[in-house]
Amino acid sequence: MTDADLRTRLSGCTRFQQLLHVDRCPSTQDLAAEQPGGSCVVWADEQRAGRGRQGRTWWGSPGDDVEVTVRVEPVAIERPERVAAAVPIAILAALETCVARPLRFKWPNDVLADGRKLCGILIDWSGPAQGRYLIGVGVNVNRSHFPAELRDKATSLAMLTGRPLDREEVVFRLAASIDAAFDVLAVAPGSRGDRAGSYARLLRARADWFGRSVRVERAGGAPLLGEASGLDLEAVELDTRDGPVRLPLAAIAAITRSGERG
User: Which pLDDT value is given to residue 131?
Assistant: First the structure.
């Protein structure tokens, strides 16, 4: 697929009427923020200063991987706290169509296959009720080798499928899935047409710590131990020694199975 084909497909069935593909840039997240107009898709063959969550660096393989930022603007969502769970799950669903197998979601921003990182996600938000979202996605697509320190920690779509993939097709599937997620999130919860439950069900199915004993790392608070007995797009319900607790997902830095290293 060419960029022209990708632009035509995006403009024909999603909100994304703008597509920018560059050879290299410091960060697609920053480049997308600078673009005029509304919703757009910005991707690069090489990022020189790609960033992940909490200031971490994302390292891609130039020309092999997908490093893309999808900007959604303006969008009105009654419960913005749902974005942090629904959008990563939509990204996971798009990647599952590429590999035809279930993947795992590691809260808050990693998609894993066989315990190895396939994709990282960064969500930036700004604005009042009708805000702007920058969804940064880094996917290992066609690389077949990793540095020694990552060989047991990372994988790619090509390694999982045994064949190279069209990167433009991957960009399209990611953007289309994110677009659909925001359409769902724009519907008032509990109203006719509310389909957010499908994302919550997939979240529960792909979070392999759900229904198990877990350790929850909270922003600004002590870790909690308990069984993850409930989970939706807004919170996890934890059965602790001191009783049940409902924790907003937005305040959770990490959730791991007890005894598992994060």
Answer: 80
Q: Which residues pair with 67 in a beta bridge?
A: 44, 138
Pick from 140, 146, 142: nearest CA to 165: 142
CA atoms lying within 13 Å on the CB side of residue 8: 5
Query: Counting runs of H as helices and runs of E as strands, what totals does the chain give?
Result: 6, 12
The 10s digit of each residue's pLDDT in 77-117 is 888 999 999 999 999 999 999 999 999 999 999 999 999 99
Q: How far apart are CA 252 and CA 38, in angstroms?
A: 30
Boundaries of every domain in the chain: 3-203, 209-257
Q: What token pair was written down for 166?
A: 């069209």
If phi > 0 it is left, if psi is from -120 to 50 it is alpha, else beta; for residue 30 that is alpha
pLDDT tens-digit series, residues 168-213: 999 999 999 999 999 999 887 878 778 899 999 999 999 989 999 9
Q: How many CA atoms lie within 13 A of 194 on its CB side?
A: 12
Same fold, 3-203 and 209-257: no
Res. 162 pLDDT band, cuts 50 70 90: very high
Coil, helix or strand at residue 182: helix
pTM: 0.92
Q: What is the CATH number of domain 3-203?
A: 3.30.930.10
DSSP H or E stretch at residue 111: strand 110-113
| Of 89, 76, 80, the residue nearest 174 (C-alpha) | 89
Give every strand in the sheet of 224-231, ordered side by side.
Answer: 243-248, 235-240, 224-231, 213-218, 252-257
Considering the domain 209-257 in this protein, what is its CATH number? 2.30.30.100
